[in-house]
């Protein structure tokens, strides 16, 4: 069993830990369909034989082409080099969530929002024991489901999403988890990030999952300057071959958890340091300075709000109506002098 890092997981690392993914029939049918689409494998010629119409039909998570200029050759080569080194450094990078079916993965993914994979994996065995189909979740009802998933946090919203998602799957997809990005993102609780996880790990459709680690590393490595996850995904799709998108996601996220921490990246131990523009960059220097400053200053002082600042100024200007102690006013002091 893989030891999870226990970091809050905006992202999920599926693991085929306790049992292999029981998608035998489905996977077989996908392989057969892909075989039909691609023609006989081997000799590296399958793509050439594929008609453009069939190629369009194969599910893909590729975003529409942006109007950005073509990727410079040097950046492309560097990105591929970084990817290769990371694959070598994390050969076992994979999903940390336990699941046996696409529905399990959908539910585990919803539960993993603002929660560690470890905690999710503690909750799901009992949940999956009771619920194998969408009807089981719907039959469980709100209160019982809330109780089962309570320890993952935000359990009311998660319950609503899971029940909404199961209802939608029952009504629109015969109780099955849909297999395309377009359909998945219409399911409650399933954004593009979750959809990429499900497609990549349960349906063999490559996808780049942009969570907080992927976003941070992509910017540090100079692969994107975007902050919006969809734009980051689009930039990465231009750099990494489609077949590697899922593997790339697991690998980069593992690297983000283990080495390239948000606050203290261990650059000196990093296998891609030579190809990373971040160490010594103005961005990193600024981060280090601000960390040093906050350490020396201790806890941050509370900045007064505009209203509070105004009130203070007004109080300074307004003469106080409180009686002064006798002898403290200017008049008192003058009369004292005269009498003295
Ligand atoms: S060199 Fe540092 S910033 Fe760059 S990827 Fe490695 S750990 Fe992250």
Please describe the topology of this protein.
Elements: E1 8-9, H1 24-38, H2 46-49, H3 52-57, H4 73-89, H5 102-111, E2 115-116, H6 117-130, H7 134-149, H8 155-173, H9 181-184, H10 192-202, H11 212-220, H12 229-239, H13 245-258, H14 282-297, H15 306-317, H16 330-339
Antiparallel strand pairs: 1-2
Helix pairs in contact: 5-8, 5-10, 6-7, 7-8, 11-13
The structure holds iron/sulfur cluster.
Iron/sulfur cluster binds at residues 220-221, 259-260, 265-267, 270, 272-273, 276, 278-279.
Walk me through this protein's architecture.
With 340 residues, the protein is mainly alpha-helical. It has a single domain, classed as Hypothetical protein, domain 2 (Endonuclease III, domain 1). Helix content is 55%, strand content 1%. It contains 16 helices and two strands. The protein has helices spanning 24-38, 46-49, 52-57, 73-89, 102-111, 117-130, 134-149, 155-173, 181-184, 192-202, 212-220, 229-239, 245-258, 282-297, 306-317, 330-339, and strands at 8-9, 115-116. The protein has a two-stranded antiparallel sheet. α11 (212-220) packs across α13 (245-258). The radius of gyration is 29 Å and the shape is globular. The chain binds iron/sulfur cluster. Iron/sulfur cluster binds at residues 220-221, 259-260, 265-267, 270, 272-273, 276, 278-279.
